[in-house]
């Protein structure tokens, strides 16, 4: 076990692998990768069978799953049972035939006083435009930065990139004041506009990087054939950008759906998203776990489905360095 | 037409949404159509058509807002009197606000370090194992749910019942304490440990992110390096220490700084779990309290500016590191 080879080490070639580099779901690269994967799998076998390592992995997996599982089980228990005993008693009770499950909590959360059903619609109405609008705007801007030569281009691009530094908190109060002034305060429009603005710096930066990876010869060939910028954008680039758009789209979707700060600041009673409603429930009825647990899972179901269905794109977006600041 | 601004029924809301999208598409389409018509258009006109609207939005929404906030941080609570650095002085000298700054520092250090460490260890352990995919999803799922949802999940874990006969604990953590013969705790009320229990929630959320990025970086380590190291007799912890960690250093830095920025801006967790009470306040939460509860615009702006200043070095460092790796490439 010698540490002597550390300093002579070749510098890392890639710390954050580019999107296309990942080896577990690239069908094109599968053939020769597989043998490499197999070789590594065999090589690492010794370590994997170490009981310590597997033990740690299992403990971590349990620790990361148990809290959600507990609340999920709770959301299906009758409220009297929730108050009387812990959710883990369900297991022995089930064996004894005493455990009961009910959908009553969900019914109460959706249709009762909490009326989360209404907020669910709000979240949906907020999220769709707040994903479509910034991505479209960012695509157009990214195209301008990548393929249209104009004066001050690199300066403006750096400026846009730098704007990622600005935390939302800095922008909230001035924006809110303007919304009040022009009288659209509290409507969905303010939330759409705000989410769109906040998403732009990162979206432009990422989509620009993806666009730059497209071979210039493709664009030039289209140009020679007489295509203008608009045609090049829609006919040549857009089809190639679908994976990039999907990965940022999921990001933006999860971010907007899960957002609390923007929703809390810019909405009013009729336009509040689910997160705000659930957070308020936690404040006002913190002890009513039948409502809180069901409410929490109602707010989670959409992002979870999106995440599990489109995980591949989501991970690709993560690895492209796309991280919401 | 009132429903365009104040939709009340679900139908009106959804109609509103489609109108917004349609309006947007029509306007952008018109701009592009107009710029595409004439044959010889100067490049800057085309660039303006493509990038004009987003640049305008950014200039208005971020640049202008940031300047206004910076300006108002030098004014009093109503924004009428110029008070120079009084807001900042108050922030750094009042005990309550000092606590907020200290808490933020703890978040920014503890969350990235612990989440990255756990994520790295997990990524190494499950690398190339048979259950890799499933094992990854389990750790990664908290990333998909909102911080509000995560806070409720953990509030339930921390739920407290007084230790009396006929009363059973319903929070898992207190039940564990009771099982091993200890007194149940008010995890979210007892200072200063309550901040640590809030931090656990953020680590729970962020570890999946660290694990995913680091796992990809580990897979990208060239084979010949690993083989050479193995021939030199490295294995297990030695391999981890001398090969894995140095090879993925750039990824480690990206992960650490990204999580640090997220931790710096933590708001949802603190608000949902304690509301910033019992000495758990952080800068982002205090900004909200001052701006919308205490109506102290000056102090709120000062907190926002501090947040701004704290983010700059983290991002600058990140960008420099990324540049370096690009140069090597």
From TrEMBL, chain A:
Keyword Transport: yes
Listed transmembrane segments: 52-73, 123-148, 155-176, 188-211, 232-257, 289-310
Basic and acidic residues composition-biased segments: 20-31
Gene3D superfamilies on file: MetI-like
UniProt entry keywords in alphabetical sequence: Cell membrane, Membrane, Transmembrane, Transmembrane helix, Transport
Region named Disordered: 1-31
Pfam families named among the record's database cross-references: BPD_transp_1
Protein localization: Cell membrane
Chief localization: membrane
Membrane topology reported for the UniProt record: Multi-pass membrane protein
Residue ranges of every copy of the ABC transmembrane type-1 domain listed in the record: 120-310
GO cellular component: plasma membrane
InterPro entries: MetI-like, MetI-like_sf
Keyword Iron-sulfur annotated: no
Any Gene Ontology biological process: transmembrane transport
Family per record: Belongs to the binding-protein-dependent transport system permease family.
UniProt protein name: Carbohydrate ABC transporter permease
Organism: Xylanimonas allomyrinae
From TrEMBL, chain B:
Ranges for domain ABC transmembrane type-1: 101-318
InterPro entries in alphabetical order: ABC_transporter_permease (IPR051393), MetI-like (IPR000515), MetI-like_sf (IPR035906)
GO biological process, one term: transmembrane transport
GO CC terms in record: plasma membrane
Record has Protein transport as a keyword: no
Record field: transmembrane: 14-35, 44-63, 105-125, 137-157, 196-218, 239-264, 299-319
Claim: Nucleotide-binding is one of the keywords in the record: no
Protein name: Sugar ABC transporter permease
Organism lineage string: Bacteria, Bacillati, Actinomycetota, Actinomycetes, Micrococcales
